[in-house]
Amino acid sequence: MTSTKSFPSYTQVRKDLTTEATATSVEDNADWGGIENLDVPQTESQAEKDAAAAKKAAEEEAEKQAEVEAQATQEQANAASRNESRSSVTYSDASGSVSAGAGASIDRAYSLIGQSMDCTALVSQALAARGIDFHGWPEEYVNVPGGHVVTDGSLQPGDILIYANTGGWNGGAHYDHVALYVGNGQAVHGGWNGYSVALASAMTEKLTIVVRIP
């Protein structure tokens, strides 16, 4: 006896793998762009940074130097203006008694004659004798506490005499000299003939500012 088994028929469909594959070919006219089209940040080398910093420092130094020179020029112009405005002033001793404070300054100044110190140290010590603590460049004695500028040409013992130009060594950056008036056309000067304290002429023809402390 023969057994027969039947099977359903199947139709196989072969997939075309070639057509399903992803294409990787590039068209001849494709445009990928050049390196210049890429947004690549530009960075400075260390040498370029150092050069830029050095240039900036040089420019700042040049600006500072220009400011210093401009200030010196302005101070010279101011001094010249003050000298011109005071050239017609005739100084003479004012009548009246010497105040106790002025007397103390004069006594201290006389006691320092022959010692070695510059003009500002001499005047500062004279002021200290009357209880005033002050020291500065010659032109700064116009700001002595309690003092005022005298404009009428009078001189009193104890007055502070300020000179813009006496042929000194300050070179225009500061006034040349300051002294203490003691009367009769004389003053005690520090830094005289070098570095000593001396009694000499008040040099009224070279005076720029007179400061008086009542």
UniProtKB/TrEMBL annotation:
GO biological process, one term: proteolysis
Span list, region Disordered: 19-99
Domain NlpC/P60: 78-214
InterPro entries: NLP_P60_dom, Papain-like_cys_pep_sf, PG_Endopeptidase_C40
Keyword Transcription among record annotations: no
UniProt cross-references to SUPFAM superfamilies, sorted A to Z: Cysteine proteinases
Basic and acidic residues bias locations: 46-67
Low complexity bias (residue ranges): 68-99
Presence of the UniProt keyword Hydrolase in the record: yes
Domain of life of the organism encoding this protein: Bacteria
Pfam families: NLPC_P60
GO MF terms held by the record: cysteine-type peptidase activity
Keywords, comma-separated and alphabetical: Hydrolase, Protease, Thiol protease
Family: Belongs to the peptidase C40 family.
Full protein name: NlpC/P60 domain-containing protein
Organism, as annotated: Bifidobacterium longum subsp. longum
Lineage of the organism: Bacteria, Bacillati, Actinomycetota, Actinomycetes, Bifidobacteriales
